[in-house]
Structure formats: structure tokens, C-alpha cells
């Protein structure tokens, strides 16, 4: 088993109990920690927040089945990181190209809001994923919580790496961190994040990887 993921992890009592409740109401849902998706040796690592109730928690694939995944996979396809513009289900044949998607917290949290202790508990898995990122790789954090989880996992000081949409940070060893507002329904419907803003960050990632 890879240290970067444990499908049987139940370290967080609140999350484990919540998953049991959700499973009782939705017996066909995944309702377990959601594994990263993509090539472990990819040079682009996209870090989200946590699985969505009717998205990754249902399908078992990050950003698959919910609103946030619509813009994400469409953008990945436009920028050459995915074989198709839509992620429908875990057996749809979609492949990522030089890209891997994970979450700062691997289990569905109540109200889609993990507490600090849960982000910290799960950080060991993100740390292992970042250690697998090849030299010269790029991390793209979706939202402030994912950004701070990446900084913690790299052992750096939060104060030295402020979050900001389209901000670029040097993680050392040739690795870069890019920030984006999360592609949530709220952010896209309020126009805090437009498709053009989102695509420009992924285009920047592609440029850095060249």
C-alpha cells in the first residue's frame, strides 16, 4: 500500500462516523477515503479541499459527479492535461496527462467543511504525494485550505506564502506552487472565479512545466 493513501483510514472519528451515516442513506455511494487520480509520476499535482457529498464521495474519483468537477475537467482538457472534457464516473475511460488530482482531506466532511485537526491528520498523505512530485513539478492549490495544507506538508512557514488567486510561489528544488480560487459552485456562480481566470492559471502551469 502506498503511504500516500490509505483506503481504510478511520483516524478522524467525526469523519468516520459521518461516512457511516451517509452510507446508510446512500448504500451505493463510495463513502470511503477517496484515492488520488492520475499518474503518480505526473509533474502537475492539483490539490483540492475534500470530496463532495454527491461528487467524489459518491463516485470514488476526485471532482467527479459534482458541480466543481465540470469546470475543472473542462479546463484540464483545454490545457492538454486530460483526454476528455468531462469526468462522468470512475469507469468512463478518462485519463489524465502528466497530471494527478488529490485532496487535502481524503474523506467527506460535514457541510463540506473539515476542521483543522482533520486537515492536520490527513496532511501526512499529502506530504508523501508532494515527495513523489518530480523535480521541476508544479502544485496547483484550489482554495486557501488546500494552499495552507501544501505549505504545511512542505514544512514551510505560512506567513511566507500568502494565498492569492494566480499567485506563484517557489517551493524549492525547482518546484512551484500556483494558487487558484476553488472551482466551487459558489465561486463560479458569483463570478469570483470565471472560466477565463481558471484557465489562465492552468495555462501558467503548462508554461512552467515546459
Structure description:
The protein has 210 residues and is an alpha/beta fold. Helices cover 36% and strands 13% of the residues. Strand 5 (168-172) and strand 6 (175-180) form a beta hairpin. It starts with 12 loop residues before the first helix and ends with a helix.
Outline the fold blueprint.
Layout: H1 13-25, E1 37-38, E2 44-48, H2 56-59, H3 67-78, E3 99-103, H4 116-132, E4 138-142, H5 144-153, E5 168-172, E6 175-180, H6 185-189, H7 195-209
Parallel strand pairs: 2-3, 2-4, 4-6
Antiparallel strand pairs: 1-3, 5-6
Helix pairs in contact: 3-7, 4-5
Unreliable spans are none
Total strands? 6
Helix content: 25-40%
| Amino-to-carboxy terminus distance | 32 Å
Highlighted features:
six-stranded mixed beta sheet; 7 helices; alpha/beta; 210 residues; globular; 6 strands
Brief account:
The protein has 210 residues and is α/β, with parallel strands linked by helices. The protein contains 7 helices and 6 strands, in the order H-E-E-H-H-E-H-E-H-E-E-H-H.
